[in-house]
């Protein structure tokens, strides 16, 4: 893997360790995350394992997770 860019096909990332939450539903409709070199992480849709990957610095995903834990996005989950 030489050049990493946002939106690249997940399959071009090589053999990275994709993980999903243990709370994900078993039907394969999950967000998966993988650690990449240079302090980056990748996100992908498990239904499309070769589809585009959202690439971002680990600090950005850490801030997002922190905000989610604090309830910042709870209003988006209202039915």
Which secondary structure elements does this structure contain, and how are they paired or packed?
Elements: E1 19-20, E2 31-36, E3 40-45, E4 54-57, H1 58-69
Antiparallel strand pairs: 1-2, 2-3, 3-4
Percent of residues in β-strands: 15-25%
Q: If you compute it from the alpha carbons, what radius of gyration comes out, rounded to the nearest whole angstrom?
A: 14 Å
Structural class designation: alpha+beta
Whole-number average pLDDT? 92
Question: What overall geometry do the principal axes of the alpha carbons give?
Answer: globular
- How many strands, which pairing sense, and closed or not: the largest β-sheet? 4 strands, antiparallel
Number of helices: 1
Domain DUF397: 17-69
Protein name: DUF397 domain-containing protein
Organism: Microbispora triticiradicis
Pfam families: DUF397
For the structure shown, list the relevant keywords:
4 strands, alpha+beta, 23% strand, single chain, 15% helix, 79 residues, 1 helix
């Amino acid at each position: 893997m030489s050049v990493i860019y946002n939106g690249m096909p997940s399959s071009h990332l090589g053999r990275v360790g994709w993980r999903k939450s243990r709370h994900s539903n078993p039907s394969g409709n999950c967000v998966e995350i993988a650690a990449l070199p240079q302090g980056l992480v990748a996100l992908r849709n498990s239904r499309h394992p070769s589809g585009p990957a959202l690439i971002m610095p680990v600090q950005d995903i850490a801030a997002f997770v922190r905000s989610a834990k604090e309830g910042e996005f709870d209003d988006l989950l209202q039915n």
